[in-house]
Amino acid sequence: MPAPTTPLYYRIQEMLRAQIASRKLAEGERLPSESELAESFETTRGTVRQALAQLTFEGLIVRRMGLGTFVAGKRVESRIEAQRFRSFEEQMEDTGAHVGFRLLGFDRETASAAVAASLELTAGAPIYRMRRLRMVEGEIIGLEDRSMPERIGAAIPASALVSRPATVMVEAALGTPLGGITVTVGAIAAEPETARELGVRRGSPILVRAHIFFDQAGKPVLTGESIYRGDKYRFTYRYGQGGP
Question: In which element (H, E) is residue 68 found?
Fold first, then answer.
């Protein structure tokens, strides 16, 4: 369960995630209204909307004008396959740009329901969570929010947190290359805390790259999000021959 100091919008998200995961809220079922949730958590409708916005982005719920908010069905999905994963830092180095980091936190904490599910751990299991800003030529481009099992986080030296890509640190802790990655990319409006950290206005468009990395045996070892300023970054995918 989230700690009492956890932001209220996040606690609302976790409650709804848990109810959807347990099927207490079944597919197609209507959620309590914004007013009902606000009254239940003794908060404002604005905080409730903030919580629901993230769940909508994740595809867990759908909002229907004039009808309410419902548990979503499964999404139709298309994938872009690549033969080799290259980190953000590697791609920037190819252009000659310098990438740096500003560490916001690297803490041992208990896994939320969502993180535990992604890492195939029991809810409340110990993990390490890393939050840091990505800088390109000294300018803030994005924010990393990543979680990893305790055994991996405990093996990462403090000096690496401000100098090395997350994937490189995890591979060093494992002693082997990573085995694979699952990625989902979407766009949302920046929430107040994220907007402040990225240096953008609240509600500005941001690009969110959610991911799970796996070891050679297919076990998840790193999960989280890379969040990018919409006005500073874009993704380009290339497959096959042709082009620069």
Answer: strand 68-71
> Cβ distance 219 to 183 under 8 Å?
no
Region 194-198: mean pLDDT is: 92
Q: Burial, 233: exposed, middle or buried (Cβ in 10 Å; 0-12, 13-18, 19+)?
A: middle
Q: What is the pLDDT of residues 144-182, one digit of tens each?
A: 999 999 999 999 999 999 989 999 999 999 999 999 888
Q: How far apart are CA 218 and CA 69, in angstroms?
A: 35
Of 68-77, 83-92, 131-140, 228-237, the range with the lowest mean pLDDT is: 83-92
The alpha-helical segments, DSSP class H, found in 58-112 are 88-94
Amino acid in the structure at residue 46: G
- For residue 41, how many C-alpha atoms fall within 13 Å in the half-sphere facing its CB? 25
Q: What domains can you pick out in the chain, each with its CATH number?
A: 8-71 (1.10.10.10), 88-229 (3.40.1410.10)
Please give the distance of CA 13 from its chain centroid, rounded to a whole number.
Answer: 14
How would DSSP label each residue in 109-137?
EEPPHHHHHHHT--TT-EEEEEEEEEEET
CB distance 181 to 187 below 8 Å: no
- SS3 for 33-50 is CHHHHHHHHCCCHHHHHH
Q: Check pLDDT > 90 for residue 91.
A: no
Here the tokens at position 72 are 């979503």
